[in-house]
Amino acid sequence: MAKFLEFQGKEWLRKSGLPVPQGRVASTPEEAKKVAEEIGKAVAVKGQVQAGGRGKAGIVKLVNTPDEAAAAAEEILAKTIGGNPIKQVLIEEKLDIKKEYYCSFVINGAREARSPMLMFSAEGGMEIESVPEELLFKVNIDPINGLQIYDALDVCARAGIPAQDLNKFASFLSKLSQAYKKLDCQTLEINPFVMTGSGNLVCADCKMEIDNSSVGRHPEFGIKIARDLPGAPTELDLIGWSIEETDARGTGFLMNMGYDEVSPGYIGYHPIGGGSAMMGLDALNQVGLKPANYADTSGNPVGSKIYRVAKSVLSQPNIDGYLLGGFMMANQEQWHHAHAIVKVLQEILPTQKPGLPCVLLLCGNREDESLEILRTGLADLMTPDGPGKRIEIYGKEYVTDTKFIGQRLLALSKDYRAEKESQGK
């Protein structure tokens, strides 16, 4: 799911006619001070990062003056949460909170539902896991007609909302439901939304996640990459998305796996099929090697798409090897992989990465022909002193032997790194 930061989600709520606190985002302490001056009263300074429990992490602070806002922003912007540096803070008015509530719109994947679902509680401000089950009220939503006002009234009444406030709450939830549908959200969580001292309902926080498949309908979002990522997209992630976005023939998934380009033991990982990819990860983990990336070329992609993915994997700097992990008897035509891998290795190994270990496991449809394409096409590289001297090619006899594949990669990568160190590289 494409995930929005809090300030981004709130901006789309505001455009949808929903009440959000006055404020805007800042990237420096100086900007934070200026925004606080514009607001002209006590403010909240909130670190913008994809993580829950921000209050406990110390990246949400309430301050009374612009100078205090600048100091709080400086402290928060110096922090890293879950490996993600905080690059922006949201400066917004401090609300006069009378009571906090929780609501979220999610997909209920249960077989008998398969629909959006509203979850509502009068116990807001807590993580959803902390809300007692008997205080969390749920209602499935018609995916065509949306949340009906009588369902909203019912769930609010069950949650203990006073009779005089039922219409206000039901109208608020109905507008949220309309925004959820209009914006093609997968998740829309407002925790908390609050009732102020004057009786108004305001979205004090916002977690918004957009259905990846709908991103093409929303150019206004400016989403660079419609893919689930642990943090901001890396250059490799953007390259992988450009491959997938421009060629729908089979899968060409490619993403960074936290590769730091400095530490030894990283392998360019190119599995075939998401399920069998786990076996390749086991092969690496068993021997202490690490995947620099995750790639997947399954679903019978054409050779040109496989070539683009493989070249991106092999172009990563300072990797200690490359694994083509076909840990499955694939029903796709494997000679597309063979032709693509031959072309990539012929381009990369002689000039850019001579001697790089390359363990190629390929099996399934057209296996014999595919292995012959690899052996013949790479023969000139695989001489004892050639740039492909550490290429090893395997077929179905090793399809489940992760231990063997891992051990071969480890032995070859140790030899490769020792050779590079002896040459002062």
UniProtKB/TrEMBL annotation:
InterPro entries to which the protein is assigned, alphabetical: ATP-grasp, ATP-grasp_succ-CoA_synth-type, ATP_grasp_subdomain_1, Succ_CoA_ligase-like_bsu, Succinyl-CoA_synth-like
Signal sequence interval, chain numbering: none
Domain (ATP-grasp) ranges: 10-234
Highest rank taxon of the organism: Bacteria
One GO biological process term: succinyl-CoA metabolic process
GO molecular function: ATP binding; metal ion binding; succinate-CoA ligase (ADP-forming) activity
Keywords: ATP-binding, Ligase, Nucleotide-binding, Tricarboxylic acid cycle
PROSITE patterns: ATP_GRASP
Pfam families linked: ATP-grasp_2
GO cellular component, one term: succinate-CoA ligase complex
Keyword Nucleotide-binding: yes
Name this protein carries in UniProt: Succinyl-CoA synthetase, beta subunit
Organism annotation: Desulfosporosinus youngiae DSM 17734
High-level lineage: Bacteria, Bacillati, Bacillota, Clostridia, Eubacteriales
